Amino acid sequence: MKLPVVFILLIFSVITLKAQWILENPEPYSNNLKFIVFTDSNTAYITGDKGTIIMLKNSIPKQINSITNKNIKQTFYNSPNNIWAVCDSGIILKFDGAKWFIFDIVGNNNLTSIHFCDSLHGWACGDKSTLLKFDGKSWKPSPLIGNTDYRSIWFVDTNLGFLSTGIGLFKYNGSNWINFYSESNSYGHFFFISDTIGFISISDFLYVYNKGTWIKRPYNSGQSGFNKYYQNKSKTETFALSGTKIYKFNINCLCFELIGSNTHMGISAYTYDSFGQLWGVGEGGLIYVDNPTWHPINSVTMDYLMDIQMLDSTYGWATTGNSLLRFHNGKWMNYTGN
Question: Less Cβ crowding at N or C end of the chain, within 10 Å?
Fold first, then answer.
């Protein structure tokens, strides 16, 4: 879920959407911005490389004093006062509702993924067989599985979890990790849409978890590995990204079906607004919108747009490598815009 810092100023109208992209008086941040998480309708946190954390409060961005210079690899939201992040060099950050701080440093290996079953039970993984378990008080190393890097971890509940590694996929049964699929470079990312249905994309196959069983499915013609998954706000639809294409999950066939494609630029992230309209961003300043069909519109920047979040149909944010764009009153603009 990651760059040039030169911006091109383009101000134009998008007649179909009655909206504008505007880039004015840019004040780019020095590090890549990667993830956006909202704690309420007025507050969000954006994280990125070299420990960058930016608070958005009532539409005003404020960079928080650095608590680490290590790259933030993934965040996990439990509640407005319980947000976690894992970083390079074994650093684990926490937000307690008032401030961000270094909760723990476990070893010095880079951490890549974090997931919680609930606020008191969490797991994290990383390079060089790093596997950590949170018991409600502290993070502790868990028994190692092989000698390899770990990429993604996901827990359905405290007694059922999954881990992707360089030597295969592993399942946690409440007490032990068991290998259920052996293949080198099994570096996919898990995503579950419910307690009974999930998937992971590895090499030339999509593995679908359906009611306790993993099913190996070859990709449909023209498909390749999926790199990101999303659900709409009502969690009734699930989508996957693969290069320049976007797919929708069909629960009847347990497969992803192509719904849109752009032949030039890759999609990096998308989100829904409150009206159910889909927005997407990607390489070269690419912006997609579903109005009335899934299609690209032009942008004001050639920078890599990395993430987008829309609170409603009139207000949202996007990260552009090392700067921010805000959507407000029908206009997209740099955060310094009014």
Answer: C
Predicted confidence band at 221 (pLDDT cuts at 50, 70, 90)? low
Phi, psi of 51 (to 5 degrees): 75, 15
- Of 178, 182, 116, nearest to 153 by C-alpha is 116
306 closest CA partner among 199, 205, 227, 252: 227
| Res 125: pLDDT | 96
Report, at the CATH architecture level, how domain 12-334 is classified.
7 Propeller (2.130)
Q: Report the candidate in 223, 194, 185 with the shortest Cα–Cα distance to residue 206.
A: 223
Whole-angstrom distance, CA of residue 274 vs CA of residue 259:
21
For the chain, the farthest-separated pair of C-alpha atoms sits apart, in whole angstroms, at 58
Question: What does DSSP assign to residue 65?
Answer: P
**Ordered DSSP codes for 207-253:** EEEETTEEEEEEPPTT-----EEEE-TTS--EEEEETTEEEEEETTT
The answer to whether the peptide bond before residue 26 is cis (omega within 30 degrees of 0) is no
The CA radius of gyration of the chain, in Å to the nearest whole number, is: 20
Is residue 78 helix, strand or coil? strand
In this structure, of 49-63, 114-128, 131-145, the range with the lowest mean pLDDT score is: 49-63
